[in-house]
Structure formats: C-alpha cells, structure tokens
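A.,

Following up on our hallway conversation. Structure tokens first:
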C-alpha cells in the first residue's frame, strides 16, 4: 500500500512538470517585481527571490575607485546547492555547510580525500590502509561508515550492499573538481536515506570551465618504520598521473575527457599488542598497497532556447587493496571496478536525471577462515538504477517551493548474503522557503520514503527558522529527522567463520596453543531503520567583507542504531567441537563478562537495533543514544594573496537514555559503541602570489575508542595525534608548467587513525603539471 501511495505521488510530480515549465515561461513575460522567478532569464526561482529580498536602493554617491593592487582583500561569498537542492548563498543555507573552494583544492598538500576532509570542522576521518578511507560528520566513524552520503554532481555513490562510501571509486581527479560542499548534519528531508549525519557533494567543472589539455604526474615516498619492528622495511612509494582534455566545439556542444591512475605501496602495520585488557597481539596478515585506474567522460549540449541543457556522462574506476570490516580485513583483488552512466536534462529549475551504478569485484578474507579451512571468499556484483525528477516554483514573492522524488532499484549478487537479490525504493519530498519579512525566513519541508525491506513509510521532516539582522549575517534554529535503511548485508548476511582463542590466557599450561571454533554470522531481516533527531543552533556571517565566521551547537538523539553484535555464547550445554578444557570454563567466561555483559566465547553474531541490545528491557526511550557538540570556524582573506583558516570541534561521548554507556577507556569493559575524539583543532593558510603558491596546515585529534572489528579482544584506544602538512609550488612559462613539492605528517609521528588500522607516517610527493 505504501509503495503504491508513493508511486501515485511520483506520478503527480511527473504530471506537474509541464505546468511548472509553463509557469517559468509565463513568469518571464511579467513585469519586474510581479514574481520572484524572473530576476534573470535563467535564474532559479529561489535564487531570484533571494536576490530580490536582498535588493537595496541604488547608491548615488560617487566613490573613488582604488587601483586593484590597492584594494582591500575581500572574502568572496559562495553559492551552494546541496543544502536544499536550491542555489543559495552560503550564509542563507538552512544547514551548516562547509565549502572547499578552488584555491584550497589547487594548493592542498594531501593527495587524497582524507587530508581534504580532515580540515573541515565536525568531520571525523579514518584511514586504515593505503586505499581504505571512511568519513563521518558529527559522530564516530569506523571501518564501514554508514551514515554519510556522498554525491558527485548529485549522483549518489553510496554502496547499498555494505552501506558505505568507496572513496577510491570516484572516477574524477582533483583537477576536475570545482568545489566540494559538506553538509554537517542530517539532510534526509531532501536527499533521503543515508544522508543521516552529513552529505558530501563533489561538484565538477563543466567542459567550458576547463578548456584545454593538462597532464599531471606525481612521485612520492613515505616512511614505514615502526617502533618495535624486527627490521627496517624501507620506505614505500606512491605514483599518480592524471590527464584531462576539454573543448567547446561550438556554442551548443562541449565535452571533456579524463583518465588517471593512483598506486601506492602498503603502509606499515602496527606491531606488539593492542592496548586493552586482553593484550591481544596484532594479527599477522599480508598487507597490500593499492592500484586505482579511472576514466571519465562528459558531453554537454546547450539548447538554442538558452534555458535547457542536456548532460550525458559516464565513467570507470577500479581499485585494489585492503578493506576492513566487522569480520576482519579483506583483500580487494585487482579488476574490481565500478562503472556509471548518467543523463541529466535541465530546463530553468526543472531537473530530470537518470543514472546507473554498477560494481563488480572479488575480495578474499585475510583473517576470517570458513569451516572448510579456506579464507572466506567475498564475491560481489551490484547494479543500481535511479530516476529522479525535481523542480522549483515561486509562489508570489514570498514563497519558493521545491519538490521532487526518485525511484531506485538495486540488484545484488553477494556470495556472503545469498538470500538477498534486490531492493526497491521510492521517495518524494517538498519544501517551502518562506520570506516572512526582511529579517526572517522559515523553511519547512518533509520527505517520504518507502523501502521494501521496511514495513512502513519513513518520514523525514525538517524545519529551520532563519533570522538575518544584516544581509550577510544569519542566525538559524533547526530541527531535522534523518535515517538510514539497513544495508543488504545487515539483512541477509549468512556466513560461518573459524575464530581463534589463545588458550594460554585461560590456563598458563596451554600458553601458545590456539583453539579454533566456529562462529555463525547471520543478518536480521526484522531490522528497523536507524534514525536521528537533530536539534541545532547555528550562525553564519561575513565580517567586514574579509572573514567568514561560523558557529554551531547541535544535540542529536540516535534511535535504533544498527550494530554487529555478539548474540550467542558457547556454554556447558553448548560445547564447541574439540573444546579441550572442562565445559564449566565456558560458563565461567560468561559469568566474567569475558566478551561483554553476559557474554562468553562467541558462537553467533548478528545485527541488532540498539533497542534490542543487552540492557534494554523495553520502553519507548530504551536504547536511544544522545550526543552533542560544538563547532567553531573562521576563514579569513588576510591579503589579496593569502587566505587563512582555523576551526575547533568538540563532540561529547555517547550516552544512553537509560544510563551512561560505560567508558571502556576508564572501566576496561567492552562497549558496542565507537567513541569519537572529544576535541579536534585545525589551522592553516594557503597563499598564491604571482608564480608562487603553497599551503601549511596543522590538525590535532584527541584519543578515540574503537570496537567495530572482530570481537572485544581487538577493541582499543588510539592515541591523540597532530599532523603537520604543507606544500610549495612554482608556475613556469606563463603558468603552462607547474611544479610543486607536498608533504603530509612532516613531523613523522606514528599515527594510527583506527586501533586496527595501518600506521601512517611522513610522506613527500613531487608533482609536475603541464597545461597545453
């Protein structure tokens, strides 16, 4: 019934599209001021209404204009689209948004997305191998970050089979990126499922914005020595190259092509034991680097009417290397790849888009052994088809209505989840931005989604009240409800692995003897959605046309988080095969809470909503997790050539409604929750002066606690760390040849961003770029 209801709503949306187009055309013939849609012939109604709200009487006083060299530096106000699917100035966005602009992208020292996002307040980053990267806003991230949505030009790259983002599967290189918009906080009211703790939208340049040909090559080396190693493994190496070509054939047709490759040796693995009560030795497995080829193409056609545009794009991205999961690391084999095809048609504010994402690969386990004594083989093949329609309409001069919807089909073929083969989704949204007065705006919206793996339609409302004491100052108060649906693996996982126990920990006479026992891991088809209620007070402003200031306080209530949890233990009445000790020892392990409250030697794992975890006995508040945080940011145009930034983030430890979650760093007990760093700080600057450019950035992160790989024996805390990154470059031959030297972790700290992850040390890269 719910699915049919949403299908009817989508049909109504399709039927409304021609009428909306007619509205836009009719609005152009009206006198100025009669509708907010006609500030410019092609301006979206929301942007036009915003411009009209900010229009001031012309100033007749003549002022002397200074030469450009003498003019004061000026912070350039940025336009964003991700917060509402509506073009609007950053200061007027209804959510907390950070923008990574062109100058930062050009001068950045990091060669990957980890360094790019680490400088954003409120965003936690973990890099656990040469290829494995996870990002989460306003919460603890982990080996599979499931609450952060990522987009490229509005196309979702979220992988539904595991419920995470494969950042190495992005087919574009940094030279093609125009800007990156990061929503810190929920956005399901617009983007639907999985836009729960944040959204990253990577916006690429159109072919007309990057005409010409460029070739970039970089060679690097990084340190791999770790305290306690028996021998020096020597330095590792990196190599990357990118080629881009773009051309405008005429005033109608334009295109761009790009190809790239990134390769890296493996990082160093930690040695010794994990810092927890078990003192578990770091497991030994063959660590590998990564190889990532990619290709992307795009063709744009601009219609003669000046209002319509068609964009067709497609691409390929391959990868190999280590991916860490709840059941241990897997080796993604060479040949694993994702491809996509996308078509987008726009006419004024009307937008219709279709895309398909296809993923095919293999990944044998490195630690998880099946009952046949062989490594578990994970073969995956997924296909996603998505059609989306959206529009924006102005109602009078005080309302901007945006609305849309999408239909999505996923096909799955997963060797470790054989019972799940498909999933269908439908969703519609509507929001109204109301210009109440010169100083007050109110945005109200809701989205409805239906998944065939969920029983009921999911509602995601959002409301934001904005107060603008001045044109470039905004104070906002907001409430959002967001969610993520269970991944296919959450619902249908079906695998049995052999786990190991060091019997010497139970009886010194058995020191060095390992006992292997089977553990069953099953999905849960009765899972509900993981949802979030978010309250926020925020401020955005531009000070003296030179500085952008932001501040946000948020309070989040997580409901029914989904955890991979031990659900059964071996006991004296359920003895594992070949158990060499008296059965009563198994009961003693349970009594001692050896693997968690009421848990002993694990016999089964599954996925549970937090309301079903041990300790929750019922009630509407049971299992709710509450967190809060504070984010402060400052971006300054110091001079016409120097930009500087500083930001600070504080995040609380999670706490349950029924009582605080025990902090395992203090009590030594296990917990189902990762604990994020409480404090993060970033500061730096970038400079571009004549032929020279560069940047320098400092990032500090406090200690964090992790328990999302294998069982409690592998949980532990990472130490605080400080990263110093910097780069310097020179433009030659009128900017046709660019050389640069870039370094990360210049102080050469032993940095572990996850207790189970690799050790990341100093890296130096030399880069050459030639523009034809």
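Then the amino acids I'd put at each of the 772 positions:
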């Amino acid at each position: 019934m719910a699915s049919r209801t949403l299908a009817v709503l989508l049909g109504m949306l399709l039927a409304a599209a021609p009428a909306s187009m007619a509205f836009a055309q009719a609005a152009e013939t009206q006198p100025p001021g009669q509708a907010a849609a006609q500030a410019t012939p092609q301006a979206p109604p929301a942007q036009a209404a915003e411009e009209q709200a900010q229009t001031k009487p012309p100033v007749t006083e003549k002022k002397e204009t200074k030469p450009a060299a003498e003019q004061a530096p000026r912070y350039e106000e940025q336009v964003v689209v991700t917060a509402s699917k509506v073009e609007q100035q950053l200061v007027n966005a209804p959510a907390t948004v950070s923008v990574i602009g062109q100058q930062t992208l050009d001068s950045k020292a990091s060669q990957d997305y980890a360094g790019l996002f680490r400088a954003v307040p409120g965003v936690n980053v973990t890099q656990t191998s040469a290829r494995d990267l996870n990002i989460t806003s306003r919460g603890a991230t982990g080996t599979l970050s499931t609450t952060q949505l990522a987009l490229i030009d509005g196309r979702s790259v979220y992988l539904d089979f595991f419920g995470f983002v494969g950042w190495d599967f992005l087919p574009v290189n940094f030279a093609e990126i125009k800007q990156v918009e990061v929503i810190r906080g929920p956005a399901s009211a617009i983007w639907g499922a999985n836009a729960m703790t944040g959204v990253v939208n990577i916006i690429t340049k159109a072919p007309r914005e990057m005409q010409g040909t460029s070739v970039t090559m970089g060679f690097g080396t990084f340190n791999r020595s770790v305290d306690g190693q028996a021998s020096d493994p020597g330095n590792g190496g990196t190599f990357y190259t990118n080629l881009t070509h773009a051309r405008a054939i005429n005033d109608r047709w334009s295109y761009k092509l790009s190809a790239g490759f990134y390769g890296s040796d493996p990082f160093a693995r930690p040695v010794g034991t994990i810092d927890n009560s078990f003192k578990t030795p770091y497991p030994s497995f063959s660590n590998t680097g990564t190889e990532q080829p990619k290709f992307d193409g795009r063709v744009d056609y601009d219609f003669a009417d000046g209002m319509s545009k068609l964009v067709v794009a497609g691409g390929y991205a391959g990868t190999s290397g280590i991916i860490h999961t709840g059941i241990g690391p897997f080796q993604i084999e060479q040949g694993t790849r994702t491809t996509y095809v996308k078509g987008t048609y726009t006419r004024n504010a009307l937008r219709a888009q279709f895309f398909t994402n296809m993923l095919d690969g293999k990944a044998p386990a490195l630690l998880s052994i099946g009952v046949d004594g062989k490594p578990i083989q994970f073969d995956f093949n997924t296909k996603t088809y998505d059609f989306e329609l959206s529009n924006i309409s102005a109602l009078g001069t005080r309302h901007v209505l945006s609305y849309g919807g999408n239909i999505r089909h996923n096909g799955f073929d997963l060797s470790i989840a054989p019972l799940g083969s498909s999933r269908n989704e439908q969703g519609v949204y509507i929001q109204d931005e109301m210009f109440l007065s010169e100083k007050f705006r109110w945005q109200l919206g809701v989205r409805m989604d239906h998944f065939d793996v969920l029983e009921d339609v999911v509602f995601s409302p959002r409301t934001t009240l904005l107060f603008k004491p001045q044109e470039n100052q905004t104070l906002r108060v907001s409430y959002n409800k967001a969610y993520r649906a269970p991944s296919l693996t959450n619902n249908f996982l079906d695998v049995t692995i052999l786990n190991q126990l060091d019997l010497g920990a139970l009886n010194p006479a058995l020191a060095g003897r390992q006992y292997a026992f089977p553990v069953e891991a099953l999905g849960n088809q009765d899972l509900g959605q993981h949802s979030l209620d978010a309250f926020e007070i925020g401020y955005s402003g531009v000070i003296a046309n030179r500085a952008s200031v932001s501040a946000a306080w948020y309070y989040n209530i997580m409901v029914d988080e989904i955890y991979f949890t031990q659900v059964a233990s071996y006991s004296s009445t359920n003895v594992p095969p070949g158990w060499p000790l008296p059965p009563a020892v198994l009961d003693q392990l349970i009594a001692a809470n050896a693997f968690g409250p009421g848990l002993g030697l694990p016999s089964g794992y599954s996925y549970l909503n937090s309301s079903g975890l041990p300790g929750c006995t019922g009630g509407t508040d049971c299992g709710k997790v509450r967190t809060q945080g504070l984010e402060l940011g400052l971006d300054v145009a110091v001079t016409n050539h120097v930009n500087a930034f500083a930001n600070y983030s504080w995040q609380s430890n999670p706490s349950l409604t029924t009582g605080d979650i025990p902090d395992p760093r203090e009590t030594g007990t296990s917990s189902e929750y990762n604990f994020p760093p409480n404090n993060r700080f970033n500061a730096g600057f970038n400079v571009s002066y004549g032929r020279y450019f560069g940047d320098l950035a400092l990032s500090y992160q406090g200690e964090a606690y992790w328990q999302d790989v294998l069982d409690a024996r592998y949980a532990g805390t990472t130490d605080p760390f400080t990263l110093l990154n910097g780069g310097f470059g020179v433009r030659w031959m009128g900017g046709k040849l660019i050389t640069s030297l870039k370094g990360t972790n210049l102080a050469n700290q032993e940095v572990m961003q996850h207790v189970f992850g690799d050790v990341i040390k100093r890296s130096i890269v030399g880069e050459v770029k030639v523009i034809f």
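Helices lie at 2-28, 45-54, 102-107, 113-118, 188-191, 488-492, 584-591, 664-667. Curious whether your intuition agrees with the design.

B.
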